[in-house]
Amino acid sequence: MNRPKPFSMIREFHLADWFTLGNACAGMGALFAVMSFLQSGDARHLQYACALIPLALVFDVLDGRIARWRQKSSALGRELDSLADIISFGVAPAAIAYGCGMQGLYDRIVLVFFVACGVSRLARFNVTAEKLSAGSDKVAYFEGTPIPTSMVLVALLWVAAAQGALGEQLWGGVWWLGGFRLHPLVLLFAVFGSLMVSRIRIPKI
């Protein structure tokens, strides 16, 4: 009986997969930076968190290009890509929003909705990728906006952190509804989440 070699899964990784892991690591770095802000109150940590999301996007773009260049892709790589994306472009932006002050009950519900939409969007893409590629090695279009569009939200939060518009000073202020807080700015996450699970066709460049 042949035993698997140590770290046999790692040995099967393609070069593109390592860039995908770089994406996930950047997302985790953003989460740690938000935690550092919540502990220290130093807004620079929020800016660091926001800055790591574009880095994650760079890794995300490069992994696809490298896979096509080397003509090496796999189901494992596709799953890795989706898992990394949900960390960097789903969970991390929601955590950054929470750190910026969207901490009311309604805020949390909207942020959970946003992440759930991101997970659903990526799952739908994975199960329909073969159909959408129409026999080629590249998907012709996306159904729903891609999850990296959350970069727009992150950019807004970076500006808010830079201006000190955090907590009760967030743009749009805070509403009290039924004894619970809602920051109107969080509704942008509801809009972006809804667009991700829509049937809008976005051509893939």
UniProtKB/TrEMBL annotation:
GO MF annotation: an example: CDP-diacylglycerol-serine O-phosphatidyltransferase activity
Organism: Pelomonas cellulosilytica
PANTHER family membership: CDP-DIACYLGLYCEROL--GLYCEROL-3-PHOSPHATE 3-PHOSPHATIDYLTRANSFERASE-RELATED, CDP-DIACYLGLYCEROL--SERINE O-PHOSPHATIDYLTRANSFERASE
Membrane topology: Multi-pass membrane protein
Catalysed reactions listed for this entry: a CDP-1,2-diacyl-sn-glycerol + L-serine = a 1,2-diacyl-sn-glycero-3-phospho-L-serine + CMP + H(+)
InterPro entries for the chain: CDP-alcohol_PTase-I, CDP-diaglyc--ser_O-PTrfase, CDP-OH_P_trans, CDP-OH_PTrfase_TM_dom, CDP_ALCOHOL_P_TRANSF_CS
Coiled-coil annotated spans: none
Source organism phylogeny: Bacteria, Pseudomonadati, Pseudomonadota, Betaproteobacteria, Burkholderiales
Similarity annotation: Belongs to the CDP-alcohol phosphatidyltransferase class-I family.
Enzyme Commission identifier(s): 2.7.8.8
Keywords attached to this entry: Lipid biosynthesis, Lipid metabolism, Membrane, Phospholipid biosynthesis, Phospholipid metabolism, Transferase, Transmembrane, Transmembrane helix
Transmembrane annotation, as ranges: 21-39, 45-62, 83-104, 110-127, 139-161, 173-197
Protein name: CDP-diacylglycerol--serine O-phosphatidyltransferase
Compartments where found: Endomembrane system
Classification via PROSITE patterns: CDP_ALCOHOL_P_TRANSF
